[in-house]
Predict the 3D structure of the following.
Amino acid sequence: MSTLTWEEPVDPFAPEPGVRAAAPTSGGLPGGRVRQVTEFIEENLDKDLPLAELAAVVCMSPFHFARLFKRSTGVPPHRFVVRQRIARARGVLATPELSIAQISRMVGFRTPSHFTTVFRRVLGITPGTYRTVALLEDRPGREGG
């Protein structure tokens, strides 16, 4: 019965509020190349992902790749990577097994404080608060009060 907006899934292809995304057919990356890069990102979220490395996956210069990636997805490559990291972190935070520091490293942030800053900027709450709410909502029998 929660109406908090931060519970909505993070759509990595959603444009920024107030920004119209370019249509995928307007001169962006071909679908196969977008898929290649997004799969590479998913498989390597725990690592540093510089623009040059992402561009190399599809054999392009970093500048050209960044421009075409944004045309294809509506967001720059770095923002896409950050959103993917936050989306993965949300899934892991819903379980109590790992510490927030371990999760931050697992999704590619160098320090827990940077992870917390980015998480709060994207979702509006800290990872600790997110975890607390997610675990409370997952408890059986909590509606009987």
Observations:
- The chain has two domains: 28-74, 75-145.
